[in-house]
Design a protein that fits this description.
Length: 237
């Protein structure tokens, strides 16, 4: 159960030290001692003594994203298990329900494109740029989540989505020359900017998790490069 919660925390965008704390607290509260945890953004390895018997487990994390509701649920269940206020069966049911919930691509893409469209206003755009960001962001985010559900490389996923952003924005602005294509594209790409990944890398570095810091920093850089490549190709076409 501790491994399930920890791997779900990593899958949902949580920091590695949070996954470590979940495992340590749950196992220590249930009779384990000398708990050793090594976690990275792509996997976790745990060993602990139970009545002088060593138990070791490993789990890989192949899919990663940002799901704050799932992260919150995992941390809440972890606290309840540590305090002995919930059974293992109920805890497993709650975590799996949150972990395996189906994502409504249409709803998620709509919310993302609305957020991006308002960013175009923040950076100085007008209502034309807002509408352009809204339109291009919607189709781009549909593609982004569709590719994500099929476990396509995150580099290809981000590049393809931003390419769609740029192409639709150029078509919109060619029809309405008063619309600024650059401000429109800036609004579109904001939902894809790896801000949480970068923040987690910084927080992991404060906790001494050097491996996780490097992995998350590289992931953030690759994501940023993919976004830049997609926009550049769209503007050069």
């Amino acid at each position: 159960m501790a491994m399930l919660i920890a791997s779900t925390v990593l899958k949902s965008g949580g920091e590695t030290y949070r996954a470590d704390e979940c495992v340590e607290k749950i196992l220590s509260a249930n009779g384990a001692h000398d708990v050793q945890v090594f976690s990275t953004p792509t996997g976790i390895c745990v060993s602990a003594y139970f009545d002088e018997v060593v138990v070791s487990r490993t789990a890989s994390v192949s899919e990663r994203g940002v799901d704050l509701s799932c992260l919150d649920e995992c941390l809440a269940v972890s606290r309840l298990l540590t305090e002995g206020k919930i059974s293992l069966g109920e805890a497993k049911k709650r975590v799996l329900n949150e972990r395996n919930k189906k994502v409504n691509i249409l709803y998620t893409a709509t919310m993302a494109c609305i957020c991006g469209a308002f960013f175009s206003l923040i950076v100085g755009g007008g209502w034309l740029e807002f509408l352009c960001s809204l339109l291009s962001g919607f189709f781009g985010m549909i593609l982004y989540y569709w590719l994500g559900k099929r476990n396509i490389s995150f580099f290809i996923t981000n590049l393809s989505a931003t390419l769609v952003f740029g192409l639709i924005a150029r078509l919109f602005c060619s029809a309405l020359p008063s619309c600024d294509v650059h401000l429109s594209i800036i609004g579109c790409i904001f939902p894809l900017v790896p801000g949480l990944t970068t923040l987690n890398a910084i927080r992991d570095s404060f906790n001494g998790d050097i491996v996780s810091t490097g992995a998350r920093a590289i992931e953030a850089v690759i994501t940023a490069v993919a976004i830049a490549c997609g926009v550049t190709i769209a503007l050069m076409v």
